[in-house]
Specification:
Layout: H1 4-23, H2 30-43, H3 51-57, H4 60-71, H5 76-79, E1 98-103, E2 109-111, E3 115-117, E4 120-125, E5 128-134, H6 150-162, E6 178-182, H7 183-186, H8 191-211, H9 217-220, E7 234-236, H10 242-251, H11 257-272, H12 279-300, H13 310-320, H14 324-342, H15 359-378, H16 382-400
Parallel strand pairs: 2-7
Antiparallel strand pairs: 1-5, 1-6, 3-4, 4-5
Helix pairs in contact: 2-4, 3-8, 6-10, 6-11, 11-12, 12-14, 12-15, 13-14
Length: 401
């Protein structure tokens, strides 16, 4: 049952929509668009955008997006008595590209600099990390998967791999604080205003989305989605890794389902591994990712088997990877632990609870995934880099002494 306040708000909005539908049904001039927009903000007790970007809100497309959100609060039978007056004045192009803009999740660690490549742009607005991508196919067909598209998965994966430790982009992807907008309409706005425009429009949409929810929003979702706190974000120095990020980004094939699935396991493992309650789940995703890495590696060298060809893989490790023989044996050890974790009962020794896992199973095999994905994408040998950096540090300390 809706609260009295929510019901009262809906009646006010319904009355407003009926009035503007009747008054502006025959024409919709620029002046009338601005009048409707300002009256809508006044109705909802929302502030006007600043004068520099106000004119970019006063378009039939933006007003349609805004009023559509208001109309979502009503049943179809209620909508018969009025309509969004912009419907007749903005004809959506069937093939228009849609941009996805999101504020990244709080309590995460993010690059401290802008990353722009292709159709994707990560940047920081008022100490808040945001990501803008082309809204290509993603996890929309799953009701329980992380809400993200392929381009977002590429950005997160490449950023985590670039700095080798994979600490960035933790807790990035929530199912709120997301805005969809036409690329054609966005390009009508000067580039230096685009992000601020999207940021402001997202705040409007958040308010509309949660203010009239049948349940109070703070009982369903954290209320920080509307009022973001910059103090809840941390940033890591990323400048030295930008070139590597760009190489990884350019090598990442958005149409490779195996790469996407492996990256998804990698991202989930990263998001879960610092939560002590879900470290077993994080370890399971590490093992799934590790299996995907092995498939990607044999695929890279022309092995087309649907199952892992251990003989071919052993040869690839021996010839291509630093200390490849030892690394291959270490990965083989993970397979037994993976089976214990995934299967309730094994033929060899039955069931065992809890599964005897150690912290190093999570962190060391996660590092192996970082190493393998870097090699698969750009043949980067991160272990060699680590040894070189360690040797440089040793020499520096020796010279100081």
């Amino acid at each position: 049952m809706e609260s009295f306040t929510a019901e009262f708000e809906k009646k006010r909005i319904k009355k407003f929509l009926k009035e503007i539908s009747a008054e502006f049904g025959s024409s919709l001039s620029q002046g009338k668009i601005e009048d409707i927009f300002k009256k809508s903000l006044e109705l909802l007790s929302l502030p006007q955008p600043n004068s520099e970007i106000l004119k970019y809100f006063v378009t039939s497309y933006v007003l349609k997006v805004f009023l559509d959100k208001l109309c979502e609060k009503f049943q179809n039978t209620e909508l018969e008595s009025f309509q969004n007056p912009c419907n007749n004045y903005y004809k959506k192009e069937k093939d228009s590209t849609i941009i996805k803009y999101r504020i990244l999740g709080e309590h995460g660690l993010y690059p401290d600099c802008e990353l722009e490549r292709g159709d994707s742009k990560y940047t920081i607005i008022n100490s808040i990390p945001v990501l803008m991508t082309k809204n290509d196919e993603g996890t929309a067909n799953s009701e329980i998967a992380i809400s993200m598209n392929r381009s977002e998965l590429r950005v997160a994966t490449c950023a985590m791999l670039a700095n080798s430790c994979a600490f960035v982009f933790l807790n990035s992807f929530e199912d709120y604080n997301i805005l969809f907008f036409s690329k054609d309409e966005l390009e009508k706005i000067p580039k230096y205003f685009q992000l601020y425009f999207l940021h402001q429009l997202l705040q409007y949409e958040n308010t509309l989305k949660y203010r009239f929810d049948k349940s109070r929003s703070d009982e369903v979702l954290p209320h920080g989605d509307i009022s973001i706190d910059p103090k809840k974000y941390e940033f890591s120095a990323f400048g030295p890794y930008i070139d590597i990020y760009c190489k990884l980004f350019d090598s990442y094939n958005l149409n490779d389902e195996l790469l996407l699935k492996t990256s998804y396991y990698f991202l989930k493992a990263s998001m879960l591994r610092f939560n002590l309650t879900f470290q077993e789940e994080s370890t399971a995703n590490v093992f799934f990712c590790l299996e995907g890495c092995m498939h990607l590696l044999q695929k890279k060298y022309g092995v087309k088997d649907t199952h892992l060809n251990l003989k071919k893989l052993q040869s690839i490790f021996r010839k291509q990877m630093p200390r490849g023989e030892d690394l291959f044996e270490y990965i083989q050890e993970a397979y037994g632990k993976r089976n214990e974790l995934v299967h309730a009962k094994l033929d060899d020794w039955g069931a065992e609870w809890p599964v005897p896992l150690e912290a190093e199973d999570l962190y060391e095999y996660f590092d192996v995934c970082v190493q393998l994905l870097n090699f698969v994408l750009i043949e980067r040998k991160t272990e060699v880099e680590k040894e070189q950096n360690f040797e440089k540090l040793r020499r520096d300390l020796k010279s100081e002494a």
